[in-house]
Amino acid sequence: MASVYIRTLFIYFMLIVSLRLMGKRQIGELQVSELIVTILLSELAAIPIADKNVPLLYAIIPILLLLSLEVIMSYVALHLPGIKTLFAARPSIIINKGVLDQKELERQRTGISELLCSLRQSGISDIGEVEYAILEQNGKFSIFPKAASSSVTPTQMSLNVPEQGISHALILDRKIIQDNLSLAGWTKEKLSKELQRRKLSAEEIFLFSVNDAEEITIITKEKKKK
């Protein structure tokens, strides 16, 4: 039993040193290669802990090999950008000059609800306030608001501006979100009347949102080319 404790402690401290040498990125910010190495390290470390008949060297040598490979590849990628593209995705522009690129959003297998969540986390209540939204290599969004939404604040101009609150997505990719209807104080009947007034149907809507000031943002669904 004592040998199990010793082997576990040895592998534990070795993994700490290995991960520290890999860098200080948080798990959510790991590149693909780094994530794979992290998973492999955990698997390799578990083998000699679970089976005391397996020599420690069977874990130590592969761990050192993976660590060396990761450090070398990181160094090479730093000096040869062309190599880096093989191991990491390029940033994708989801909103370009205020226009949502639905095809790019679909290509990145990212839902409109995820984009809206990122906007709210960035302090932006409505997608219409965004000039650029870029999906970075680490899977997070970089949000750049329009100048009209960020340059001069009402406080700086001594203006009394009513609160707009947050934007509620009532329709997401042709589907009516009942919970958001209730939060916005809308009903299906009110939504239907608004769509009829604009000569639209839910099947044509990619995003229909309304904020607490009853300001509406609509993005229609792009038709796929045959």
Q: Helical residue percent?
A: 40-55%
> Numbering strands along the chain, what is their spatial order in the largest sheet?
2-1-3-4
Largest sheet: 4 strands, antiparallel
Number of strands: 8
Terminal residue distance: 67 Å
Strand content: 15-25%
Shape: elongated
Main structural class: alpha+beta
Radius of gyration: 25 Å
Helical segment count: 9
Order of helices and strands: HHHHEEHHEEHEEHHEE
Give average pLDDT, whole number: 79
Indicate the low-confidence ranges by residue numbers: 24-28
Produce a short descriptive summary.
This protein has helices at 2-22, 32-50, 57-79, 81-87, 102-107, 112-121, 147-150, 178-184, 188-197, and strands at residues 92-96, 99-100, 130-135, 141-145, 167-172, 175-176, 205-211, 216-220. By secondary structure, the protein is α+β, with helices and mostly antiparallel strands.
